[in-house]
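Exercise 3.2. Students should predict the tertiary structure of the chain below and write it as structure tokens, then compare their answer with the key that follows.

Predict this chain's 3D structure.
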Amino acid sequence: MKEDNENVNVLDEVNKGASMGMDAIKFILDKVEDKDFKELLEKQYDKYQEISNSINEIYPNYSDKEPHETGGMTKAMTWYGINMKTMTDHTTSKLAELLVQGTNMGIIEGRRILNNKHVSKDIEKILHKYVKMQENSLEELKKYL
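Answer key:
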């Protein structure tokens, strides 16, 4: 199978973004004391998982390989960064702030891809879902700042 590079690259980027979102939520959940905030994060985690599952379903149409996820080094750096930034302040507000920053990066990357890449309709649909989900997440997270 000949790889369709642009489509594969976009699927990989979105999957990495979803993986990073799930990693960040996993690392932060242990520190969360607010029940409503914890519930919100669990719902967001599930939405990232849905995006990743959608990518895994269509990926074989574009490549024989597996979708890219975040590597061990990136996971370690995310974990380390969260722990360093929450060492002295692990309030709900601080945790929400970290997630807002990461979500903003995901939105920027998703919008950049939407505006500059020409991808298949099924991929574009996933990309739109990813960006909308993150924009909604951002609005929810703001309530905890």
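Discussion points: The longest helix spans residues 5-29. The mean pLDDT is 89.
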